[in-house]
Amino acid sequence: LTTTSKLLQRQGYHGTGLNQIVAEADAPKGSLYFHFPGGKEQLVAEAIGETANYLDRALAAHDTGSAASSLDGYLTTIIDRMERSGFQDGCPIATVALDVGASSELIASACSAAFDRVAGHVAAWFERDGVDPETARASAGFVYAALQGAMVFAKARRSVQPLEELRAALPSVLPRASVSS
Amino acid sequence: LTTTSKLLQRQGYHGTGLNQIVAEADAPKGSLYFHFPGGKEQLVAEAIGETANYLDRALAAHDTGSAASSLDGYLTTIIDRMERSGFQDGCPIATVALDVGASSELIASACSAAFDRVAGHVAAWFERDGVDPETARASAGFVYAALQGAMVFAKARRSVQPLEELRAALPSVLPRASVSS
Fold this sequence. Notes:
The structure is a homodimer.
Chain A: H1 2-11, H2 18-25, H3 29-35, H4 39-61, H5 67-84, H6 92-100, H7 105-128, H8 133-157, H9 161-173
């Protein structure tokens, strides 16, 4: 699943073949249909679920107690990773959602659940800061969308500038606490 | 080029074959390498340029004199289009940027130029509203990134809700004029 995610974020769904996954994962070929009887579609859907777990843990690892500083730290890590990968790495979920979100219901729903999970984590940070639940949910969706878009631009431009600009813009668009604490 | 863009936004770079492009465009096969001696890579790069032209005209067609209402109208059109296409349509530039932005310099640079052109159009709207150039540029990048991300979410969720939420959130994140007119 880890190998699949890694290849998906670099080459997309149609650019990633089962043979390549099996070869890079150093797995016996027969094991693929044993573990994933639904073939490539099931494998990719489960890899997206695994990526969501990974992102959830990554967010938790960057939690500093306030949404603003946690997001800033998380963005710093993303910027660092994209730069070190020579802009090969991106978001496997977004890449797959654009490639096959329209044609595979199984994969679309895995991507949707993954996005909800990440946005839900950020929304919980906002709520902890005193933002009302509805504003927290909407703002988290907006911030996560901006992050996705900035990663697309960074990959096209082969520059972290769009992500640095997002980091600079974030403080002015974060939701304000609805209760004074 | 139009057929290529249409197929790219539904299936991505690796999911779109030259044979399918030629068939759907109803073009003689020999014409492809006559017009595009660089093959698929050149064809896709030029289709991205054509898409940028199209988006530029679409933005101009939605210009109502103020950035806020122009963007609102543009978003309404995007929401309508995504819904009518059954969430098949997305942004061909983002899809291609994620698929091959890392491996093809020609295509990455075409995507980057296309993004700059759209963001530049929005930045010009902000400037016309009295926003200083640097803030206008940064805000346009941020708004366009959020739009890209919301389109990815809409495709995965097969729902226009992420785009409707972006439209609702926009007024509170648009830059303010730096001079009182």
